UniProtKB/TrEMBL annotation:
It is found in: Cytoplasm. NCBIfam families: aroA. 3-phosphoshikimate binds at K25, S26, R30, S170, Q172, D318, K345. It comes from the Bacteria. One of its GO terms (cellular component) is cytoplasm. InterPro entries: Enolpyruvate_Tfrase_dom (IPR001986), Enolpyruvate_Tfrase_sf (IPR036968), EPSP_synthase (IPR006264), EPSP_synthase_CS (IPR023193), RNA3'P_cycl/enolpyr_Trfase_a/b (IPR013792). Phosphoenolpyruvate binds at K25, G98, R126, Q172, R349, R390. CDD domains: EPSP_synthase. The gene is aroA. This is 3-phosphoshikimate 1-carboxyvinyltransferase. Keywords: Amino-acid biosynthesis, Aromatic amino acid biosynthesis, Cytoplasm, Transferase. Monomer.
């Protein structure tokens, strides 16, 4: 667990320059897992050096996989094949990472040894029945603490392929089922409540597994094999999102965000911000590791509130904390519905953002599956990120428009997804510093 970290942020001048955000978190987790199960050696470049993805790497090492780091952002994984993992005598610590825990639950359900998955205080409160139940339907045996971690996964279960329908839109749940399906006899099929990010499917294909998929469904036969493959990880759209909104909000700003992954299941925020009036241009589109990738040029624009279309929610599920900040600075009202999942992320993101923005003078009404945000003027003050990385970075962006300094408590977990955020942000003009205890008192 990292030491406590608080920030103090002041509004400043226009933001200028170019930024290359760290590698995609979802892709980095999956690249490690599939490379570990493949035959041969895979090289991952652009790997996210975040605490979440490093936790997954450590766990795979505990399970007997050799992983080396020739340089920062690079990993070489010597795959052990589908049946080459070995039991760990110690629990497997996923840290803050819901993705790590849920995907590994699927992967470990097919092993012939027992495993225990644990996490930090936040992850230990997060719901796991969403993976336990579908995995049990495939024959897995997983004990939990009333539906929450730790997860005790019993090895040696005979997995039987089935067609399953997910009740909530979750790429993590879909991926857990598919990873268990690698070990099942017959064809495992998932039909989703709503289409979600398809990185697991794309990457299985790249590693040579015969999978079929389309928006909202995927089907694969079990008991095939994975062949090593090199993975180039594009920049994480969810990390770019803080700079997209920052440049939009501060008059006179222009930022170029380089090499950002633009998988259509991730970019709902672009559509929504454009509908609010944002000026976001896509330049130099190219493919990186099989993913649509481009540079984004963002200029300041005045925003107006909108009703966020429900069909966009899954495509921007990680971007609501920063959307709340954009809405707070827009003219008029922004309404969010159909986003109850936000209540079970790293924090209850509806509650955390609503109370933080209220502390800064914004009128926010919560509802069970979203919020109504009345745009207004931000004042300074003290806000609590509740250890949620995306809420902490969102409040740092809010401070750019505040009339007095904003103190943000509990920011250490920014390192889970965005190591180096502070330096990159300062480099384009954020006035953001580590706060002393006296400043936070
Ligand atoms: C992720 C899926 C999303 C997202 C998370 C990463 C993934 O969770 O919030 O940050 O890598 O599959 P859900 O699929 O549970 O919504």
């Amino acid at each position: 667990m990292s030491a406590r970290l608080d920030w103090i942020c002041h509004a400043g001048a226009a933001l200028r320059g170019s930024v290359r955000v760290p590698g995609d978190k979802s892709i980095s987790h999956r690249a490690l897992m599939l490379a570990a199960l493949a035959h041969g050696s895979s090289r991952v470049s652009g790997f996210l050096e975040g605490e979440d993805t490093r936790a997954t790497a450590r766990i795979l090492q505990q399970l007997g996989v050799r992983i080396t780091a020739p340089s920062a952002g690079e990993r070489v994984i010597d795959g052990v094949g589908l049946h080459g993992l070995r039991a760990s005598a110690q629990p497997l610590d996923c840290g803050n990472a819901g993705t790590g825990m849920r995907l590994l639950a699927g992967l470990l359900a097919g092993q012939d040894f027992d495993s225990v998955l644990i996490g930090d205080a936040s992850l230990s409160q997060r719901p796991m029945r969403r993976v336990i139940e579908p995995l049990a339907a495939l024959g897995a045996r997983i004990d939990s603490s009333d539906g929450r971690p730790p997860l005790r996964i019993h090895g040696g279960a005979l997995l039987r392929a089935r067609a399953l329908r997910t009740a909530i839109a979750s790429a993590q749940v879909k991926s857990a089922i598919l990873l268990a399906g690698l070990y099942a006899d017959g064809v495992t099929r998932v039909d989703e409540a709503q289409p979600t990010r398809d990185y697991t499917e794309r990457m299985l294909q790249a590693f040579g597994w015969p999978i079929e998929f389309g928006p909202g469904w995927a089907a694969l036969p079990g008991r095939q094999s994975l062949q090593a493959s090199d993975v180039q990880v594009p920049g994480d759209f969810s990390s770019a999102a803080f700079f997209i909104v920052a440049a939009t909000l501060v008059p006179g700003s222009e930022l170029l965000l380089r090499d950002v992954g633009l998988n259509p299941r991730r970019t709902g925020l672009i559509e929504v911000l454009r509908a609010m009036g944002a000026d976001i241009r896509i330049e130099a589109p190219h493919q990186r590791g099989g993913e649509p990738t481009a540079d984004l040029r963002v200029r300041h624009a005045d925003l107006r509130g909108i009703e966020v279309p429900r069909e966009q929610v899954a495509d921007m599920i990680d971007e609501f904390p920063i959307l709340f900040v954009a809405a707070a600075c827009a003219t008029g009202v922004t309404r969010v519905h159909g986003a109850a999942e936000l209540r079970v992320k790293e924090s209850d993101r509806i509650a955390v953002m609503a109370s933080g923005l209220r502390a800064l003078g914004i009128d926010v009404q919560e509802n069970p599956d979203g919020a109504l945000i009345q745009g207004g003027s931000l004042r300074g003050g003290a806000v609590e990120s509740h250890g949620d990385h995306r809420c902490a970075m969102s409040f740092a962006v809010a401070a750019l428009r505040a009339s007095a300094p904003v103190r943000i408590a509990d920011c250490a977990n920014v390192a889970t997804s965005f190591p180096g955020f502070e330096a990159l942000a300062r480099g384009v003009g954020f006035d953001l510093h580590v706060a002393t205890q006296a400043q936070m008192a």
